[in-house]
């Protein structure tokens, strides 16, 4: 691993972005098979270690001083997955993997807002893991991913033999939507993570899941971030919706943060969208998991319309693929609804 910083060339996003804003239609591409395991956040997800019971006791109107800038958003409160991996983590018995993760996490902790994200020299097994995830999941994108994803995906020039650098990805996003990536050492505290969205900043891990199980990770890793989140963050309408969630979090009390976390979970992580009578995925937890992509199209899950004002069920991330998804009619519609919810929070 090197701390050397390079400035990457900047592929243009103007053509696809312009096409998108001109309401042009879909695209299509690839195909095929394989792999299983779902992406799940195991212990903490975004909601962290807050149980529903303890939450209700703590739900008083807390006096929240919202961050005035990204520099005031704490990127250091990491929930789990630090030096001590859980016993069921694939890397639990791999000392070299743990040291590698800690080196990368240390680099993320040292990052200053406004500075380029340090590049990593990924190891051969990390590149192979990334290549496997890219190869397998991308087989289903043409038939399962939403048009916005298919539209922006080629901008990033993903290749199986090269793990993309966060700085290069962030540079493309800045040109397309004004969003950026900030490296983070692990699963961030939900309030801080959601606050980052208000400043058009996505906190991203930089380490790679354990090579022994390339199609499974119990936590977000760079494969999930790059394949699930990054292409969607190049779409302006999607970003508008996500920005609403971030803005709503700035003045939210703990109970509202909990609800916003569920909104985030059922949209940004596991959201579906209706396209020409078909169900397509835009949630990162679906787009970065071959098994989840298959599951969403099966007869198994329940699919409901999304309403940010509705009581949302407990997030389920420990019992296999999602049993419930929420579906949007459009990102514009979702942004409008989330905007109304945001207004309601600010008036409370
Ligand atoms: Fe995610």
Summarize, please.
The chain has 14 helices and 6 strands. It is an alpha/beta fold.
Summarize the structure in words.
- The protein has 348 residues and is of the alpha/beta class.
- The model is unreliable at 1-12 and 14-62 (pLDDT under 50).
- The radius of gyration is 19 Å and the shape is globular.
- The strands form two sheets. It has a four-stranded mixed sheet. The chain has a two-stranded parallel sheet with strand order 1-2.
- The chain starts with 13 loop residues before the first helix and ends with a helix.
- It is built from 14 helices and six strands.
- It has one domain (29-56, 64-347): Phenylalanine Hydroxylase (Orthogonal Bundle), CATH 1.10.800.
- Fe (ii) ion binds at residues 220, 224, 228-229, 269, 284.
- Fe (ii) ion binds next to helix 9.
- Its EC number is 1.14.16.1.
- Keywords: Iron, Metal-binding, Monooxygenase, Oxidoreductase.
- Residues 20-33 have a biased composition (Polar residues).
- Residues 49-348 form the Biopterin-dependent aromatic amino acid hydroxylase family profile domain.
The helix content, as a percent range, equals 40-55%
The count of strands amounts to 6
What portion of residues belong to β-strands? 5-15%
Instruction: Return the average pLDDT rounded to an integer.
Output: 81
What's the CATH class label?
Answer: Mainly Alpha
Cofactor: Fe(2+)
GO molecular function: iron ion binding; phenylalanine 4-monooxygenase activity
Keywords: Iron, Metal-binding, Monooxygenase, Oxidoreductase
Family: Belongs to the biopterin-dependent aromatic amino acid hydroxylase family.
